[in-house]
Amino acid sequence: MSLLLLGSVCAQAREESSPAIYQTAASIHALSQEQAQRAYPAHLLGVVTQSLNDGFTLQDRTGGIWIYFDHPEQFMPGDEIDVEGTAKPGLFAPVVQALSVRKLGRAPLPKPIKVSFKQISNGNRDCQYVSVTGMVRSVGIRKGASNSQKIWMRIAVDDGIIDATFPAADADLAAKLIDAFVRIDAPTMCSKNQKRQIIAANLSVPSMRNLTVLRPPPPDIFATPLIPVGKLMQYLSGTDYYHRVRVAGVATYYKPGESLILEDRGQALLVKTAENKTIQPGDRVEAVGFPAPADSGPILQDAVLRRTASGAALQPALVKIAEISSGTMNNTLVSVDGHLVRRIHEPFREVLLLQDESNILLAELNQSGGSDPFPELREGSKIRISGISVLEVEGMWNYGLRSAYDVRSKLLLRAPTDVEIIEPPTWWTTRHVLYIAGVLGILVLVFLAQIIVSRIEKWRLEAVLEERERLAHEIHDTLAQSFAGIGFQLQAILKEIPRDMPSLKEQVNLARDLVRHSHKEARRSIEPLQPNSLQETDLLLSLENAARNMVQGGSVNVVTSCSGNPRSLSLQIADALLRIGQEAIANAVRHADPSNLTIALHYEDNTIQLKIQDDGNGFVKSGDLLGFGLRGMRKRAASISGRLDIITGLGQGTCVAITVPLPPVMTLSNSLKRTFRYASGHIFHVEAKQRANTNTDR
User: Fold this and answer.
1) How much is the average pLDDT of 564-573?
2) Would you call 400 helix, strand, or coil by DSSP?
3) For residues 204 and 190, is the Cβ–Cβ distance under 8 A?
4) Ordered alpha helix ranges (H), 304-397
């Protein structure tokens, strides 16, 4: 506890002992990030060593530091100035945000500290004025940089490579210094990321006055002996990774300021260059640069280019995908035939997957966006693509020991014209076949489900018919036979009655007629319960027979009609319509006293309508509609999703109409047509959605 208190007191003492104003660059650089955030006041006196767009570097007797200032162009290297401001954490090392800057005059530049690559690579010498000695490897232009740092020069020192930036006005002089041995005096600058981490350390050179040529470059850099591309870094070739070599070949690919590919006698070489020349495929080009190791073979770095002649572009060699992965065709211009398996659109490149027999090759075209480079290209097409074969190797590639390395090949397309369509895709692609198989599978399942449902319904109806037959037999064996027995007994009693008792005979005759009528009604009730009543004939004939049996011996005229295209009905629908029709006919015969009775069936594509119409007395629709018979009719109609309509009035007759929906007719022709329409519509919908997504990505 006492140690913690002592530490707190010491920290507070150090805080209280901090100077009121920081007056040296070294004292500000010694601040931690937390301390620099407190914006301590700073007052510095020193010499400007570099002036850029958003500030300048200042060197005092203790070191250099970066000064943020709104008008840095007012000061030049060598100006002695007085700066007042506040200390800030900066993006990497502590800095000063200037509030006022006053020029005192001119002063000599500070003596630079000689440093190596190792000493500046950790960033500890950020903004310090240093001196570097080495050989100029290459010179190039920095894309997107300001004019004060537009030109970069790569310097090879004893223990590494250091980059230096120069103003754009020094471009011509810098280009003439390749292979010169020079000394550069300038402040260091650190490139950093968003996490305050150093990416690279370089020199920010105010002008060519800060460069001293210790040994001039050779008169002609292209006087170096010419080495065949295929001999580079081979045994006893006289080449190494530390001396420039000169190669020549035909350009097959060129990206200005980045890379060039030369092909010579069937061998190709990747050349890294910062130069921006006018070079076209087919031009004869010489390159002088440093060999460098790469996973797939040596390349040429920091190269200087010279176009020696123009010529026709090389014709690519037609090869198989397997040959590209062999390792002998790296960076070679080739052509491959195959089928396009997949297209992938990315923000900065277009990717094609090509299949040749059982091998797959990735081809890519780098682009900055815009329209589709291959508007006519569809998956499944047979195409020929031409481009640069590129190998990507992971691990130790040694004598073809595949267990020790992993080789992936791809084709680098140079332009959309490198893709040629040989045959358009056939409709019978794998995707379409899978769609059709899926649709047919679904259709088969639907058919099976319909068969199972119809079988279940048939079994249910058979059970109902069996129960009805049982009831009919029971009624026949009990009620109907009982009526017959009673009638027989009444007939016997009638014979025994004396003739002088006519009133008694009249009462027995009346009872016998009543029994006979009840027997007839019982037989009529049994008939609808017979299972064969519907199976042996059609619906309309069954209704006609029922009506004629009911009006037998009367004066009612029965008329039947059928319109539309008759079709078979399910047992459930046919049975429900028969029962409703029988009930409607019975009601008309019993209660309406009609002269004419019409039974009509009308078939449509998806419905059937049954009408029972009479010209009898009619009735007023009121509570009578809640009778047992009408309730039964409505219940039967609802069981088959039908609509029951009753149109009547006193003296106007009655019309009972039942309309029932029917399932669509499923013929083989209709099934195939529906399946084809579904499959075509589904495929069109999927392809349209993919095209919409592709256009949205673009």
Assistant:
1) 83
2) coil
3) no
4) 321-324
Task: Give the per-residue SS3 of 558-617.
Answer: EEEEEECCCCCCCHHHHHHHHHHHHHHHHHHHHHHCCCEEEEEEEECCCEEEEEEEECCC
Instruction: Please tell me the total number of residues recorded for the chain in this structure.
Output: 698
**Rg of the Cα atoms in the chain:** 52
Structure tokens at 523: 């037989």
- Residue 419 phi/psi, 5-degree rounding, is -110, 125
As given in the structure block, the two tokens for residue 637 are: 């109609």
* H or E element, residue 152: strand 151-157
- Residue 385 to residue 363: CA distance in whole angstroms: 8
What mean pLDDT do residues 117-125 have? Answer: 91
Does residue 523 surpass a pLDDT of 70? no
C-alpha closest to that of 529 among 601, 489, 594, 578:
578
- Give residue 126's identity as a one-letter amino acid code: D
Whole-number Å distance between alpha carbons of 160 and 151: 20
pLDDT at 49: 96
Which of residues 479 and 334 earns the better pLDDT score?
A: 334
Give the pLDDT confidence score for residue 691 in this predicted structure: 53
The answer to whether residue 337 scores a pLDDT higher than 90 is yes
Q: What is the pTM of this model?
A: 0.59
Instruction: Specify which of 179-183, 198-202, 593-597 reaches the highest per-range mean pLDDT.
Output: 179-183
- Write the DSSP assignment of 235-283 as a string of letters: TTSS--SSS-EEEEEEEEEEETTTEEEEEETTEEEEEE--------TT-
Task: Give CA–CA dist 361/387, Å, rounded.
Answer: 12
For 372, residues 6+ apart whose C-beta sits below 8 A from its C-beta are 345, 694, 698
The strand pair at 181-192 and 654-661 is best described as unpaired
pLDDT of residue 655: 92
Average pLDDT over residues 270-281: 92
pLDDT in tens, 225-243: 999 999 999 999 989 988 8
